[in-house]
Design goal:
Blueprint lengths: L3 E10 L2 E11 L3 E6 L5 H6 L9 E6 L2 E2 L4 H7 E4 L12 H7 L8 H14 L15 H13 L5 E5 L7 H12 L4 E5 L11 E6 L2 E6 L1 H12 L1
Parallel strand pairs: 3-8, 3-9, 6-7, 7-8
Antiparallel strand pairs: 1-2, 1-4, 4-5, 9-10
Helix pairs in contact: 3-5, 4-5, 5-6
Length: 226
């Protein structure tokens, strides 16, 4: 299980302060993050793999400062974006999954076996040679998951992974996320997805305003948005 620490973390974009002195220690397997738009929740999780660098404080993943060791940390942390089109980079489904393994420099037979296993796991075998950008929205999100998980990260971050999906595909993606062995941090507005996680963090105005078990934290969030 991953060990993630935020130590006095602050961040701003220009004059806009988006995070204010965040102190957290995340070790649970399933963690949810909620907050209104502009609350700082997406910035918070992007700090974990160096997509954003803090202006103050530091973020540690398994003891490594992300600002100083971003490349090593990214091998441990997989990131699934809201819109899968932002992370699909290769022409076909198989090529896109295989692309994620390039940095690992695996023997070709091992890499091919991993790709085949990932395609099978996410039900994409029949689409392996299909143009990646012509898939349906649900298929694209499954491809994004396959491309992240093929490199076997120990931590997976999903930033609103079901927002653009219909109910059926949202359920499929959620079931796959629930089945992961890795530590999972999921950002979502769909509160029903967080009822069975281990811990929920509520963000508001760049601060952590609640950090508790789901029933308690989500009640506080519902009161906040009312």
């Amino acid at each position: 299980m991953g060990d993630i620490r935020f130590e006095g973390v602050g961040h701003s974009f220009g004059d806009e302060v988006v995070l204010q002195r965040i102190d957290l220690h995340l070790t649970e397997q399933r963690i949810g993050v909620v907050g209104a738009n502009g609350s700082g929740k997406s910035t918070l999780v992007r700090l974990v793999n160096g997509l954003v660098t803090p202006r103050s404080g530091r973020v540690l993943v398994d003891g490594q400062d992300v600002s100083k060791h971003a490349r090593e940390v990214r091998r441990r942390v997989g990131f699934v974006f809201t819109n899968p089109d932002t992370q699909i980079v290769m022409p076909t489904v198989r090529e896109d999954v295989a692309f994620s393994l390039r940095r690992l420099k695996l023997p070709s037979d091992e890499a091919a076996a991993r790709v085949d296993a990932a395609l099978e796991r996410f039900g994409l075998e029949a689409l392996a040679d299909r143009a990646a950008h012509k898939l349906s929205g649900g298929q694209k999100q499954l491809l994004a998951l396959a491309a992240v998980l093929v490199s076997e990260p120990s931590i997976v971050i999903a930033d609103e992974p079901t927002t653009l999906l219909d109910g059926r595909n949202a359920r499929i993606v959620t079931d796959y996320l629930d089945s992961l062995d890795q530590q999972l941090i999921v950002v979502t507005h769909q509160l029903e997805l967080l009822e069975h996680v281990d811990r929920v963090i509520v963000m508001d105005g760049g601060r952590v305003v609640a950090d508790d078990e789901p029933a308690v934290a989500l009640d506080l969030y519902r009161a906040l948005i009312r």
